[in-house]
Write a structure and sequence with these properties.
The chain has 351 residues and is of the alpha/beta class. The protein has one domain (5-349): TIM Barrel. Helices cover 30% and strands 16% of the residues. It contains 11 helices and 12 strands. It has a 12-stranded mixed sheet with strand order 7-8-9-6-5-4-3-2-1-10-11-12. It starts with a helix and ends with a helix. Belongs to the radical SAM superfamily. MoaA family. Residues 28-261 form the Radical SAM core domain. It is an enzyme of class 4 (lyase).
Length: 351
């Protein structure tokens, strides 16, 4: 694969974190920050009802691919072990395969690095194998129904189900597994799909994860009544077959894991609203325009790209990241009196 010179040369003078800084990122609550989510575009070819207003004419922000790569290198020097490329829809981004390839080359025997990507799957069928060949480890596909009519109602894009299903199957063939399929549950739209997704997990051999609807949508339509809580999801799954709890893979895992009495299929439930998991959060996010966010629901952002664009060195960027992590919130406050939604929606923050 040909790599543009601007990418290949961007890390030539890469320097590790200065000696007076800790080698790893630890916030003031004692949590190790090992998971970086990088939004490489806030463009998207879907207009999902729980995310977008459906209106056209939005303004988009993206950094050069080489700049994302330099930022990633600084984070890796600070102990990041997991990188997830997100959007918007990252498969829309020109230069994606080069970015994946260059990040994959940063793996060393003594430095674990899990490289994953989240996509809506619409363009995945033709890109699954090239992504695997470039060095991607795993993929998560957003699919909010297994009924074609319902998914089109949610995405507001005709034919979306068939594109997404083809993308999931292509990802499995390419070895980007275990493939995870994320479904945001939104009352009045798709809560009747829970059992259908249980069957889908068993039939297709994928991990299905239900996500509680969070107040991150553009049109500010979220209400507590629109959330389908974890308890209700487990009850509906139990109507299909007896449900068995599984232990967490890691302490910071966001999903509660379940299977069925026969051990076939895996369901995860991510319940940030009804059963918050902030106590073991290991994440930090980079928006597509280069701002750091310490929580999805932060009321402030930290302009790392601005520092870099003004000529900041890798050491200065590392110090900035440490100072930002030190301000990481203990938890979010969804549902509490005085809760404020973030100023930007999920598509602009990055999934």
């Amino acid at each position: 694969m040909m790599v543009p010179a601007s990418i290949a040369d961007s890390g030539a003078a890469f320097q590790t974190a200065p000696a007076h800084l800790p080698s790893r990122l630890i916030d003031k609550h004692g949590r190790a920050i090992t998971d970086l989510r990088v939004s490489i575009t806030d463009r998207c070819n879907y207009k999902c009802v729980y995310c977008r207003t459906g209106n056209d004419g939005a303004q988009y922000s993206e950094l050069p691919i080489a700049d994302y790569l330099r930022i990633v290198k600084v984070f890796l020097a600070l102990g990041i072990e997991k990188i997830r490329l997100t959007g918007g829809e990252p498969l829309l981004r020109r230069g994606l395969l080069d970015l994946v390839s260059e990040i994959a080359k940063l793996r060393r025997p003594d430095v674990p690095l899990d490289l994953a990507l989240t996509t809506n799957g619409h363009l995945l069928e033709s890109l699954a194998q090239p992504l695997k060949d470039a060095g991607l480890d795993r993929i998560t596909v957003s699919m909010d129904a297994v009924d074609p009519d319902i998914i089109e109602r949610i995405t507001r894009v005709p034919g979306s189900f068939h594109h997404v299903l083809a993308g999931i199957r292509a990802a499995q063939r390419a070895g980007l597994g275990p493939v995870k399929v994320n479904c945001v549950l939104l009352r009045g739209f798709n809560e009747d799909q829970i059992v259908s997704f249980a069957r889908f997990s068993r039939d297709e051999g994928v991990i299905v994860r239900f996500i509680e609807f969070m107040p991150l949508e553009e049109d500010r339509s979220w209400t507590p009544a629109s959330v389908v809580p974890l308890r209700e999801v487990v009850e509906r799954l139990g109507e299909f077959r007896p449900v068995v709890s599984l232990s967490a893979n890691t302490l910071s895992e966001t999903a509660r894991r379940y299977t069925f009495d026969d051990g076939i299929g895996e369901i995860g439930i991510i319940a940030p609203v009804s059963q918050a998991f902030c106590g073991h959060c290991s994440r930090i996010r980079l928006t597509s325009d280069g701002k750091l966010r310490t929580c999805l629901f932060s009321q402030s952002e930290h302009d790392l790209y601005g520092l870099m664009h003004r000529g900041g060195s890798d050491q200065e960027m590392a110090a900035f990241i440490h100072a930002t992590v030190a301000q990481k919130e203990a938890r979010h406050h969804i549902g509490e009196e005085g809760f404020l939604k973030p100023s930007r929606s999920m598509v602009h923050i990055g999934g």
